[in-house]
Sequence to fold (336 residues):
Amino acid sequence: MLEQKVLEILKQNNENYVSGESLSEHLGVTRTSIWKHINSLKEAGYNIESVTRKGYRLIDSSDILNEFEVKNGLQTDLIGNKIVYIKEVDSTNLYARKIALEGAEDGTVVIADAQTAGRGRLGRNWSSMAGKGIWMSVVLRPQISPEEVQIITLGASVAAIKAIYDVTGIRAGIKWPNDIICDGKKVCGILTEMNSEVEMVNFLILGIGINVNHTILDFPDEIKSIATSLAVYSGMNDKKNVKLFRRSDIIKKLLYELEQIYNKIKKGAVKDIIDEWKLYSATLGKQVRVIYKNDTYTGTALDIRDDGRLVVKCDDGCTRDVFSGEVSVRGILGYL
Ligand code: BTN
Fold:
């Protein structure tokens, strides 16, 4: 698309002016056509300055999310080869499921600027305000059994931790199995949904939500005390420089890290993923409360097994493996 070519040239020129004449010569179109494309880029939110006799320059500070911004500089071979960007959708997981049933390829990524019915784990809602976060689902078609899916989910939390650190410098932790936590509050959640036969997974939808540029007022009242965003957290540590992060940068890094994890899973290097998960754990060694069906017990989180089960040394002396259910960790998400 010509509009993208104009954008690419402006980006390559790093905030320097590019004349309308050179753009029109380079792209083989009239200057009026360049002017029209510049206007539609401005309408899409790009901050482009036009100065007579100098030309156009992109003031590249904006957090614009679209397919081009994610593709531009993406360093993956598979994940993100196809990206579907939607301004507003009910849930990217539902949309991804629909296109997976229609045959969407392994590694297809669905990204929305807003979700009207974002879904969380255990049947909860996921608040997904426009322009503030990363609401994304990846279609994966691994050749694994349903029992092995937990490793992908754990691996996805490792990928999220690494991408967040790489782009923002924030060191988050993982609450088992895959909540990403900053300052005892949730900054990112992962919802993996699968479509499977008895022995084989047909496809997985890996849904990832990251609260990026919310202020604390942006969160609904009922989650204000347990949710945070990367911007809020970075502002807590450095009140003078509250940063807004570019969502497309985090997504690119996240897709890259997800691909590394996916390749490890394909090679059977599950132990590596578990070891990395332990490195970032905000759960092991902590006091936990486990609610599973009608049973509630407390204890200390000891370890995580190679299939992703959490090992808990219960207060009554016995050791139990937790595969699913709700685990609260003392000091995190309001469990005091
Ligand atoms: C959780 O409860 O921790 C999981 C939250 C997962 C939210 C993401 S946002 C993108 C994707 N689409 C959804 O509807 N949910 C997931």
User: Anything to note?
Assistant: The domain at 67-280 is CATH 3.30.930.10 (BirA Bifunctional Protein; domain 2).
